[in-house]
DNA sequence: TCGTGTCAACGACAATTGTCGTAGAGCGGA
DNA sequence: TCCGCTCTACGACAATTGTCGTTGACACGA
């Protein structure tokens, strides 16, 4: 791993508020503080709160800042997938002792999954079993 | 919902250290501070740290304390299942926008699940689809 | 009874987190 | 040119979290 340029250092786990901002950036793409702040109106928090969070996230490496314009443009430094994987792995270790089964059970029983989701998961299971067999033959 | 007696008030989400202690209590059952502390040796933390955490957890309602003995005995006030459900729901909302599919995908791809796990999940899917059909007829 | 070791209570502390207020910098229109 | 807006920078603050140190209360054996 770490073969191609993506050095992607060790960014810390985002906090709750930070994750909320990251979700906005993932959804809307790079944007200014003002835009991000407007996207989270209703939280009742002030503009400087959003600004401060983004500034600290920049220091942590969670977001990148383009200062070429008067209004700085922020963009997520980590992908949604990578972050989600990190969070799931973390929860898996901390709350489930590393066993994914119970996590999946809870996830599925928590929110009524759609029929499409169920079949998608079923397909994923098929692929995993396929690969499992392949591995069994390759690495005995 | 909230049909049967289990009123189970609103305990806060356990922090990282608190969750670690809860896992010990879940696994070993009610025990003293000393025993819990021994179970987490290697973390390099002191006895009073464990004590303080358990005391604060008592105030929060995360654990219950039996003071009838000189060495107080603590036990988890919430079940592992309920806590896991809470944590999964939380992560689902905060990181996945409420869609369980991606969470399941990450969970399964994160750690190579055993063949038993896979078939267990498959069975769960069957049950969910079964119930889904039932619900569709009962609550249109 | 006295000493020694175990344990709980309390307070303290640094780091982190979420939240602002205030002070300037810079730009665009009157 | 000057005014007003928009934005950033900086610092401050309370609450939370993880971590101890110190101080007493207790209990049990010598």
In brief:
Chain A contains six helices and three strands. Chain A is mainly alpha-helical. Chain A has a three-stranded antiparallel sheet with strand order 1-3-2.
Q: Which strand order does the major sheet of chain A show?
A: 1-3-2
> What is the share of helical residues of chain A?
55-70%
Oligomeric state of this protein:
homodimer
Q: Roughly how many Å is the radius of gyration of chain A?
A: 19 Å
Largest interface: A-B, 44 and 44 residues
Q: What is the strand tally of chain A?
A: 3
Range of strand content of chain A:
5-15%
Largest sheet of chain A: 3 strands, antiparallel
Global mean pLDDT of chain A: 87
Figure out the total of helices of chain A. 6
What is the CATH class name of the domain at 16-76 in chain A? Mainly Alpha
Uncertain stretches of 5 or more adjacent residues of chain A? 1-7
- Looking at the overall shape, the CATH architecture of the domain at 16-76 in chain A is Orthogonal Bundle
| H-E string of chain A | HEHHEEHHH
């Amino acid at each position: 791993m770490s073969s191609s340029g993506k050095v992607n250092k060790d960014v810390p786990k985002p906090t709750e508020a930070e994750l909320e901002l990251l979700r906005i950036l993932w959804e809307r793409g790079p944007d200014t503080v003002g835009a991000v702040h407007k996207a989270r109106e209703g939280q009742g928090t002030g503009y400087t709160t959003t600004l401060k969070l983004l500034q600290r996230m920049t220091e942590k490496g969670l977001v990148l800042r383009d200062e070429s314009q008067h209004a700085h443009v922020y963009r997520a430094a980590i992908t949604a997938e990578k972050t989600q994987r990190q969070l799931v792995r973390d929860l898996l270790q901390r709350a489930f002792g590393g066993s994914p089964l119970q996590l999946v059970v809870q996830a599925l029983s928590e929110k009524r999954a759609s029929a499409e989701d169920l079949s998608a998961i079923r397909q994923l299971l098929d692929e995993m079993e396929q690969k499992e067999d392949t591995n069994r033959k390759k690495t005995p």
